[in-house]
Amino acid sequence: MSRVTLKKEVEVTAYIFGENHKASYGIVVLHEVWGVNYTIRALAQELSDFLNCKVLLPDLFAGKVARHISEATRIRSLLDWSQVLSDIGIAVRFLRDRQHCRNVAVVGYSLGGALALTAAAAVNGLDCCVCFYGIPPRQLCDVRKISVPIQLHFGEKDQAKGFTDLEEAMRLEEELKLAGVNHELFIYPRAGHGFMSRPDQYDIELADSVKQRILEQYDPESRHLAFQRMISFFMRHFDTV
Hints:
With 241 residues, this protein is of the alpha/beta class. 39% of the residues lie in helices and 18% in strands. It has 7 helices and 8 strands; from the N terminus they run E-E-E-H-E-H-H-E-H-E-E-H-E-H-H. A hairpin with a 7-residue loop joins strand 1 and strand 2 (13-17). Helix 3 crosses helix 4 (111-122). InterPro entries: AB_hydrolase_fold, Dienelactn_hydro, Dienelactone_hydrolase-like.
């Protein structure tokens, strides 16, 4: 893993994994509301290692890392979505122009999942998008503008009411169908919110109450199946020749 600056005029910090891998595709990983902590770095590293490709993890919070719910809520409330989408666009161009990736995908988790869907509608240069348990505000993301294939994963036991609970996931599914978006959606009956975060990857500085809440919604079989589905989806939409 290396730290890189994506743009000099307005500095955007990111972490690149697998920079020496030779695959002709790259993936932008978008972090949760906790910021760039150990958990999301572990997810990015795992993805890079498995696909033998370059993975870029932009720091959308400019160095801020939340350890408690109150911190995460405050940081999220100050988020400038237009600026964040600009940063994501810079990350996509970095992989294409400076890392010579012919295909670029985006995957996001929770808040990052919501941002990934928004990027699929608003950022040029993406070939596909994977969203884990994240739904953007309707006024910030017009799903009718999504023109790339997307894959979505939600836990049936998700307790994030009004954000990514089962009712919201089904409502999003209907909107995507009406818009004619090429998509596939998977619901995991035994999983809740944040189920892609393995207990052995939890950031040790997260508050114990946060770690316990994530653990209660974790299901290893759901995680394994979702990971395999994501890999298969990427490989279907990447030019691997």
